[in-house]
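=== Structure Prediction Worksheet ===
Name of assembly: unnamed complex
Input type: mixed (protein and possibly other molecules)
Chain count: four
Listed entries:
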Amino acid sequence: MKLTTKSRYAVTAMLDIAYHNKGNPISLPEIADRQNISLSYLEQLFSRLKKSGLVESIKGPGGGYMLSKGADDIVISEVIQAVDEDLETTACNGKSNCHNNHQCISHNLWQDLGVEIKNFLSDITLQQVISKNNSDIKEIKLSEY
Amino acid sequence: MKLTTKSRYAVTAMLDIAYHNKGNPISLPEIADRQNISLSYLEQLFSRLKKSGLVESIKGPGGGYMLSKGADDIVISEVIQAVDEDLETTACNGKSNCHNNHQCISHNLWQDLGVEIKNFLSDITLQQVISKNNSDIKEIKLSEY
DNA sequence: TAATAGTTGACAATATTACTAGGTTAAATC
DNA sequence: GATTTAACCTAGTAATATTGTCAACTATTA
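=== Predicted Assembly ===
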């Protein structure tokens, strides 16, 4: 799992929608303004988010984007995966003929690391992040670590 | 903590040295060949690794790079930090005036995530990765998760 | 001492990715 | 129906990542 500003923008935007959602769609210009992200960039990100089925769109005035599932049903990892293709986790590309090959000693580390990060991010829903002072996340952290 | 291919290259190269080290320095062309990383790029990465004090270099024939500490004394996170500057973890840049501001709801998530990843990577040494079939890492994983 | 194998550093060149700008289309309101 | 608002699409530019080249400089070896 690759972690860049792109991932963060996508998550931030999704959080913004979840946070401000009151049944009505949220427009990208709104998000762009609130979160200080370029509108064009947001459009590209949301193109992917839509393709991945995470959001639905309504055109025209009053339109915008809505989460296609509940905020407690969308985890951070799927948002990131929607906009950022996976990082090749190993030099060998994860090929199975790489077992115990000294040319690919980092295979396991990156594999494991990827799994760890993904696990961490798969345990956190948009709703949990939004919940005041993030007590939910703190709980996760304390119990898991 | 930003995670990109660059980070992986650096870690992979360090692991290669640790793995092949028998008291003698390891040359970059060797690593480039074994790990399929461009020599030029390796040179740039090792320039940083040296500046950070993680490796020492020996010039001339038979020269190359050596770890400046034991492989069990170098953790993955410091390798990554040496080559990759930190990712801004939040849109607000972590400024303290951002508390409970709805414009920066993702603040805590990214902060926490960064800490988690760093913790994970700070618990793993080069030596642990190299140890056959990574039993050490598995142990860490099981106990922590 | 000459030749060689290696590091080191400075650039330039290319490739890939991040980000921006502008136009087109769809729906709503006036 | 004209205007507005917003999604959508197609580029372009800017920034990084990656590779390539060349010229010192250093130690080894013959």
